[in-house]
Amino acid sequence: MEFYCLSISHQTTSLDIREQLNCAQPDLGAALTSNAANLDGLLNPISEIAILSTCNRFELYLIFRNDQHPFAGRPEQVRQGLLAYLRHVTGYTGPDLAGFSVFYQDLGAVEHLMRVTCGLEAQVIGESQIIGQVSDALEAALQAGSARHTLASLFRAALHTAKRAHTETAIGRSPTSLSSVAASIAEQMLGNLNQQMVLVIGAGEMSVLAVRAFHARGVKNLTVVNRSYANAVKLAQQYGYQAGAWEDLDDILGRCKVALSATGSQHPILTAGRLQEVQNRRGYHPILLLDIALPRDIDPVARDLPGVTLVDLDDIQRQLHHTLDQRRNEVLRVEAIVQEELRAFAHWIKVIPTVGKLHRKAEQIRQQEVERTLQHLPELDPHVHEQIELMTRSLVKKLFHEPSTRLRNGVKNGELSKYTNSLHFLFGLDDDDAHTRE
To answer: For residue 436, what pLDDT is reported?
Structure first.
């Protein structure tokens, strides 16, 4: 069994490159099922793949479940194949990505995903938004059929590790996100914000966090603008603020002191020309623009306009070290949890083939017994037939859930071979292999 990860992130490249690699959540399924499925033979019945795409990273996770594939023991070809796959699914045509990427193998790939999910590799150390993004990446891969038991086990192990990290340490206390750091920067630059007019553009998760962060800093006058007015109203009303119509965006920009933008637009919504007209009407009074979207919502050329101060994701990264001292103190404790869970997963990898054989044998028996029963029920209603299938699958799944969980969570290194040997003997799993070879 081989694990691989190709990672491009804020640690390896600039915002200019990263925004070309962004893949929105609704597009993940299409990317995973595109005609790149057979690119260089990387994706086939014995492989599984998932895409993790956030504002700060684009990562591919690939698993080969056995050594019967064209790339067995050839990691460099896997790396080149993943780079080609990445270019295909994102449409990237810029500079060679090889120098901007990091390639992880086997337990190194497992450890990296655990560290990412715990927030150790984030711009804001310990931020918890990544947990939901990892969960969404797994769900997209499961729905697309590109992830099955093995890859799901890896992602769930990473999510379990993050849950422990946020429960057992202070890595995520005093919640900090890119949105709250942006609000903090506004407070540092402008002083007390409670008398300032603030505009938040967008109503997604980042905008929700931004509104919450401004509210926590005493902002009284805040307007939410979104293409969907109903969503803007829903977010604004949670904190007693007002919503504005999308067509009134320029007018509201003309009156605010701070504007934070976090939409899912694939192109800048505030171009330099548009902001030039806004500033003309404002008499060039100062305005602070906070762009935490990827791709960027605000044309970077706008920072050259009179009266405009533009802060984007790269600017936030350069200022993060001022806010993270407390969380850094917790990093060693989280890293110890990661190492503990990594060892547990390494043990689990050894168990997976046995569990797989056990489930396959149970499924074979289930199918045989269902077929035998149905032979005596030729007039059976199709709906009842479907319910029998569902019931018997559920029965097998529930029957083996607890033994599988105990093997994963309770097996110590010295006991591993004892339990797996017992399963092979009691269920005749080696006999099945012998019959298959014959």
So the answer is: 44
